Amino acid sequence: MSNAILSLKDVSYSYPDGTSALNDCSLTIRRGMRTAVMGANGAGKTTMFLHLNGILRSSAGDIQWEGTSLDYSRDGMRELRSRVGLVFQNPDSQLFSASVREDVSFGPMNLGLPKNVVRKRVEEALLSVGMAESADKPVHNLSYGQKKRVCIAGVLAMEPEVLVLDEPMAGLDAAMQEELTVVLERLHAAGMTIIIATHDLDFAYGWADEAIVLQRGRLLAQGNAADVLLRPEVQTELGSSPLVAEITRSLALTGMAVRVNGYLPRSRSELLKAISEFHRQENEQ
Ligand SMILES: Nc1ncnc2c1ncn2[C@@H]1O[C@H](COP(=O)(O)OP(=O)(O)OP(=O)(O)O)[C@@H](O)[C@H]1O
Ligand SMILES: [Mg+2]
């Protein structure tokens, strides 16, 4: 694909205990897109993410940044990690400094940025995840959801080209999930490439441009999220289908063909809008 930013070509990876986690896996992440990565527990999502910023190195196959194989030298890795920011699934794997501010400062300081730039980026990142007031708190005293927010801030402060989030919504309260969605929209609008692993099919259907579905370490499906997430084999693998799509289908069976701006609704708010639009048109006739 022409605007590929990161791609895996026939990548295989086994953990030291012999567990095969990726098996001839090929997929493409496109620049500027919002990509949802889905698949059952153990399908290989986290393992794939750890390959995208070079934490793990495949035993076979190739990983490319804009068509060029990754450079695993020290300098190559430093450059890759400034471009690809990964927020871990488990915040305790990511946080290591004493205070929130120190932790979020670590990445941008390592980029060698001037102190005042680091300070500004850290303040902005903490504000955007609602943690500015906790900047001086010890990390180990935070709740799970607060730790997740600090991890997200740490990566935002690096201003990467690609933001990779491993189940970012898990453990966040509803208000914070909403706020994070707004932050992600802003970053997407500014041109950032965003990749999210999630088990939340409804979120993926409403948010993503593209979807990647993994099955036992291999690619099961990839493409336009609205198409991929409705494919029968994907629904069988994920054990579910997007609720909004199911409701839209049921309404169609009763003669209500609801649309927003001519398209099938993808989110709860679009569905509600489409239903009121349908009733408005009915009343006009
Ligand atoms: N450190 C490890 N050592 C050995 N095996 C591992 C290790 N980490 C993961 N695995 C195995 O690799 C496979 C892929 O795991 P991975 O964590 O990538 O899945 P996932 O799709 O992220 O799952 P989940 O939805 O539960 O987060 C699984 O079989 C898992 O048990
Ligand atoms: Mg995982």
Cofactors and ligands present?
adenosine-5'-triphosphate, magnesium ion
**Main sheet summary:** 6 strands, mixed
What count of helical segments does DSSP give? 11
SSE series: EEEHEEHEHHHEHEHEEHHHH
CATH fold field value of the largest domain: Rossmann fold
Give a verbal description of the structure:
This protein has two domains: 4-240, P-loop containing nucleotide triphosphate hydrolases (Rossmann fold, 3-Layer(aba) Sandwich), CATH 3.40.50.300; 242-285, no CATH class. The chain has eleven helices and ten strands. The chain has helices at 45-52, 74-83, 100-110, 115-128, 144-156, 174-189, 201-207, 225-228, 232-238, 243-253, 268-284, and strands at 4-14, 20-30, 34-38, 60-65, 68-69, 84-87, 162-166, 193-197, 210-215, 218-224. Magnesium ion (MG) binds next to helix 1.
Short description:
By secondary structure, the chain is α/β, with parallel strands linked by helices. 41% of the residues lie in helices and 22% in strands.
Strand and helix layout:
Layout (H helix, E strand, L loop, with lengths): L3 E11 L5 E11 L3 E5 L6 H8 L7 E6 L2 E2 L4 H10 E4 L12 H11 L4 H14 L15 H13 L5 E5 L7 H16 L3 E5 L3 H7 L2 E6 L2 E7 H4 L3 H7 L4 H11 L14 H17 L1
Parallel strand pairs: 3-8, 3-9, 6-7, 7-8
Antiparallel strand pairs: 1-2, 1-4, 4-5, 9-10
Helix pairs in contact: 3-4, 3-5, 4-5
List keywords for this structure.
11 helices; 2 domains; binds adenosine-5'-triphosphate; alpha/beta; 285 residues; Rossmann fold; binds magnesium ion; four-stranded antiparallel β-sheet
